[in-house]
Amino acid sequence: MVFIAVLCVRDSTQQRRVSSALWLPTIWTMYCGSRPLSSWFKPELSAPSHIDYTEGSAIDRAFLSIVIVLGLAILWKRRLNWSRIVRTNVWVFVFFSYMALSVLWSDYPGVSFKRWVRTTGDFIMVLLVLSEDDSFEAIKTIFRRAAFVLLPLSIVLIKYFRAVGVEYTADGSATMWIGVTTQKNVLGYVAMVWSLYFVSNVVTTWKRTGKAPILDALFVLLALWLLAGSSTASSKTSLASFALGLYLLVVFHLLSSHPNKIIGKYGFAIIVILLFVAITTLYGPPGEVTTLGRDPTLTGRTEIWEAVLAVGPRNPLFGRGYGSFWIGNLANDVWSKIYTPILQSHNGYIDIYIELGALGLTFLARLIWSAYNTIRQTFLRNTEYGTLRIVLLSVILIHNLTESSFGRPTHLLWFLFLLVCTTISGVAQERAI
């Protein structure tokens, strides 16, 4: 705890281009990258059998409501040019508007609306970060501060408080590290994100100064240790996503002296190739064991997809309504087919299709394409920032092939997806709070 406190104080005293209001999205990032508050205060109630998914947690609801209100108050005082923000992020607003509209045909409109408000909080925090005077420095600051808390604390819990930081399979044959999160796959993508961030920092600093930053190098090791997982269980999807993200980092840094090549001939082609490699690596030829060492069903994922699609979106065009599928009888229908209580289909694209239909998938695809075009412009102004954005976007797209984060409130990868897809560069503001 002293180590964490020293790092946070040291970081605060060194910052000159970010405001104190940035602590609000930093806390939000920590929340997204850990477990709900209710799981810390009442862990016995965090098991699936004790959770009422139509009501949620009063503790978390109160906390998130306070943070969202504070965020709105800060944005109001910053006097942002909202018309320009909407014009430059039209597909983000279209996607959020469509999610809100889908509440009208949801089987649980009250629950859907509350989840939409919650994920709107993700976007509010994104705007708080990007409306700083130096948005890239603000992004790096929330990454650093959140890492200073989440990574060391996860290691301490895994090593010395195993009742909190470690889980076991039902037969006791496998040990699963969870750290500050709720599940090994969650810890996997948390470690993946910060591994890529600190590797990028080390490479960038080395190229600029000829020296490796000691603290960043230390956190690379911490993040990689968590990413590797225990000797009996780890997140293969996060490991594969990290490997492909690392490859992108290397390629883009090698081409950093020729940004036009990155944004022109090679950029989109590289991403398409990586997606193809990821799909063939994860899924492999039918009937064969995949190169990630999984069984042909991807640890039962193909069976989950079949069960989810069998229940169906009800309306292929519009879906069942945002946030309304994994509750009530619909979830029970899926559970009865696979005999396992789950809260996602382990594929972000399928989850969007089920809840928002083909129209929702179309809006998501258009949002991704718009983000890519925006990132191309970022490369011309700041290659380091552009590289980080394209790497994060790519690994999130790949990660959603076997996990689900699109549209999921307070999910770290959904928050980061909005962070790399949104831009308010050049938006006039009176001052940063």
Description:
The chain has 433 residues and is mostly helical. 67% of the residues lie in helices and 1% in strands. A two-stranded antiparallel ribbon has the order 1-2.
Secondary structure: number of strands: 2
Main β-sheet, in a few words? 2 strands, antiparallel
**Low-pLDDT stretches:** 281-298, 427-433
Helix count from the secondary structure assignment = 18
Strand proportion, as a percent range, falls in under 5%
Please describe the structure with a list of short key phrases separated by commas or semicolons:
single chain; 433 residues; mainly alpha; two-stranded antiparallel ribbon; 1% strand; globular
Structural topology:
Elements: H1 2-14, H2 23-32, H3 37-41, H4 58-78, H5 82-88, H6 90-102, H7 109-130, H8 135-160, H9 162-165, E1 166-168, E2 175-177, H10 184-209, H11 214-228, H12 236-254, H13 259-283, H14 301-311, H15 328-338, H16 348-381, H17 383-399, H18 412-421
Antiparallel strand pairs: 1-2
Helix pairs in contact: 1-8, 2-8, 4-7, 6-16, 7-18, 8-11, 10-11, 10-12, 10-17, 12-13, 12-17, 13-16, 13-17, 14-15, 16-17, 17-18
